[in-house]
Specification:
Radius of gyration: 24 Å
Strand order of the largest sheet: 6-5-7-8
Number of strands: 12
Largest sheet: 4 strands, antiparallel
Helix content: 40-55%
Number of helices: 11
Structural class: alpha+beta
Length: about 375
């Protein structure tokens, strides 16, 4: 019984987070499509058999399906949810209807519709993180070093007590937490750390180490470390609620850092240096969602924003079946003045499906084992 309850409290937050992210993504496609006069046949959350839905005044079927692991917007004249046109069926529409079909819109309109989904996810992330920062504020601790472990990467690089961290790899450090986060997400990497020492600016080049860390839920992960400490008292902790303009800068900086760390991680995986165990699929995301929910609704909302950003960026990868793959086709059309041949598009879709399914299978197997 306990296992069933635990599973329930893991799955429900995951599905709630995923549903909101998918809705935001597909709503981006839908809104820009409607603004460009494109007829939308279906707006679906999930796949498979329909559970319930309704038709709006424009003829769009809004529905929730039985398999809540994604969603899609299907335009009139599409063969499937991947927006592959039913070329034989397109000619059956009259001239007025054809003018509202995605296939017959100019290439820039099609690009706008396709890119709108990932951009919606990115904007959603900004709004959520910005609202949390302005609404809740945060507790910060000055990024000053109080102790350096002997023979640690920090000691070898020349760090000393009372050094104040200013930037790491070009990123402005506003608190000791910022510094810890960048170091933790940079195991065994060379980083440039700008510091102030006795009023003098210095730059230290350091190679981070790697340590195992066990969180409060018992999850073990490899994180970067330098071997520095901060001995803070309660009086050293400062509550900060940035003004609306400053919060924009902080939020954008955080989003850029997240994207940068994600790409560095993927780059290391591609060259065989990354830790495959840190790659998460649906099972791991569900587990993390359940754990975040136990820490409070704002922690879960923050996780949702970060996942939305990563999903938005991932969808821009130039892989057919993803939005980025469609964009490659359309930019080819812009450069050449004509669409890529149907044969090559079909080959691309098949290759893209193979890549996406392979990633899904690998991530699920990796999660389980």
């Amino acid at each position: 019984m306990e296992n069933i309850v635990a599973l329930f409290f893991m799955i429900v937050p995951f599905l709630a987070v995923l549903t909101i992210i998918v809705f935001v993504h597909e709503m981006g496609h839908y809104l820009v499509a409607r603004w460009n006069g494109i007829a939308v046949q279906v707006f679906a959350i999930g796949f498979g058999p329909e559970l319930f839905g309704f038709n709006d005044k424009n003829g769009t079927r809004w529905k929730v399906c039985a398999i809540p692991l994604g969603g899609y917007v299907k335009f009139v004249g599409d063969m499937n949810a991947a927006s592959m046109p039913n070329r034989e069926g397109l000619e059956q529409f009259d001239a007025q209807t054809q003018s509202s079909l995605f296939f017959y819109k100019n290439v820039w309109q099609r690009i706008a519709v396709v890119i709108a989904g990932p951009i919606a996810n990115i904007i959603f992330t900004f709004i959520v993180l910005y609202a949390l920062l302005v609404g809740l504020g945060r507790y910060t601790l000055e990024a000053q070093i109080d102790g350096v472990e002997p023979q640690s990467p920090a000691s070898i690089a020349g760090f000393m007590p009372e050094d104040r961290i200013v930037r790491v790899d070009g990123y402005l450090i506003r608190s000791f937490g910022d510094f810890q986060r960048i170091v933790a997400t940079s195991p065994e990497r060379d980083i440039l750390v700008e510091i102030y020492r006795l009023g003098t600016a210095m730059t230290l080049d350091v190679r981070t180490g790697v340590r195992e860390r066990t969180d409060q839920f018992g999850n073990i992960s490899n994180v970067g470390y330098l071997g520095v400490s901060r001995n803070a008292t309660q009086e050293d902790v400062i509550f900060v609620r940035p003004n609306p303009v400053e919060a924009v800068v902080i939020t954008v900086d955080e989003m850029i850092l997240i994207v940068d760390r994600s790409f560095k991680f993927l780059g290391e995986l591609l060259v065989g240096k990354g830790d495959v165990d840190q790659l998460g699929g649906p099972v791991k995301i569900a587990k993390i969602s359940g754990e975040a929910a136990t820490l409070g609704v704002f922690t879960l909302i923050n996780l949702m924003a970060l996942l939305s950003l990563n999903i938005g960026i991932f969808n821009l990868f130039p892989i057919p079946m993803l939005d980025g793959g469609h964009l490659v086709y359309y930019f080819y059309e812009v450069v050449r003045g004509k669409p890529l041949s149907e044969k090559f598009q079909e080959m691309g879709y098949r290759f893209g499906m193979f890549i996406v399914l392979s990633l899904m299978v690998f991530s699920v197997v990796n999660d389980i084992f």
